[in-house]
Design a protein that fits this description.
Number of domains: 2
Number of helices: 1
Strand order of the largest sheet: 1-2-3-4-5-7-8-9
Number of strands: 17
CATH topology of the largest domain: Lipocalin
Structural class: mainly beta
Order of helices and strands: HEEEEEEEEEEEEEEEEE
Strand content: over 45%
CATH architecture of the largest domain: Beta Barrel
């Protein structure tokens, strides 16, 4: 009977095989991560209830340039918190993870501060669901949570109607005239102005009915509101009073503004 002899592997054979295996594994991981990144592009939403029983909505929008926008909306669908920053998908052993870093956060978009922290959440991606295990990466003030986000379908364009402006106070002491110019996200301007229509009260509701086509929920509408005691100057370059602002378009909503000590007003709108 012949004796079977075990031969040692030839020097130099194992490293190339191992290297090939590592490269193949890395390429596979990179492909899976790239696939998930493409599938995650868009907006995701989950409805929640806090410890006080108040309802709110969290949304995460993943942008093509590996950026994210996180928002908390109150029960009235008005923004209460906003954060944005960089977004990256990684592998943590057998788990898929989403890392959120370089974060700026605050109550409103114009008052965001650098957040000296980053968040990493293990996730599972379904067809139209994105399950995130949040606040498990380290001890945080927020409680750990398992949130199932739903994909937000792209809204169809509608017409934004600015219904009215409720003046609670104005800086004008005599008869005054009003001019409102609003811009849609594409930069198109629409104006409300009624020649010869003056107001002599500080508290008055002005029926506007200004229509802005091709508007969608979640978009910003910017505007300029001007007052003057001379009719022809209300829409001019040097009015007595000018206020600029913006609001987030929703199905129906209102927003309060106070541009000056003696000027307070509320804009109301709806989509149709």
């Amino acid at each position: 009977m012949k004796t079977l002899t075990k031969h040692k592997p030839i020097d130099g054979m194992k490293p190339p095989l191992l290297s090939f295996g590592c490269i193949a594994s890395l390429l596979c991981v990179a492909t899976l991560v790239a696939d998930d990144a493409a599938l995650l592009a868009g907006k995701w939403s989950v409805k929640k209830v806090n410890d006080e029983g108040q309802k709110f909505t969290q949304t995460i929008e993943i942008k093509p340039d590996n950026k994210f926008v996180f928002q908390i909306l109150g029960e009235d669908n008005q923004p209460a918190f906003l954060a944005h920053g960089d977004f990256k998908l990684e592998k943590l052993g057998p788990f898929n993870a989403a890392r959120f870093f370089h974060i700026k956060a605050g109550a409103v978009d114009s008052d965001l501060n650098d957040l000296d922290d980053e968040y990493e959440s293990v996730y599972v991606l379904g067809g139209d669901t994105w399950t995130l295990a949040s606040n498990f990466d380290k001890d945080r003030q927020q409680k750990p949570a398992l949130d199932v986000y739903q994909r937000v379908k792209s809204p169809t364009a509608q017409t934004l109607v600015i219904d009215e402006i409720e003046m609670a106070d104005t800086p004008q002491s005599t008869t005054w005239f009003v001019c409102l110019e609003a811009k849609t996200p594409d930069g198109t301007s629409h104006r409300y102005y009624v020649a010869g229509k003056g107001y002599d009260k500080k508290q008055v509701t002005i029926p506007v009915g200004l229509e802005l086509p091709k508007a969608k929920t979640g978009q910003k509408c910017s505007f300029t509101l001007q007052l003057d005691d001379i009719d022809d100057d209300a829409c001019g370059d040097e009015p007595d009073n000018r206020s600029t602002g913006e609001f987030i378009v929703s199905e129906r909503g209102s927003q309060y503004f106070k541009p000056e000590d003696h000027w307070r007003y509320t804009i109301r709108w709806h989509l149709r």
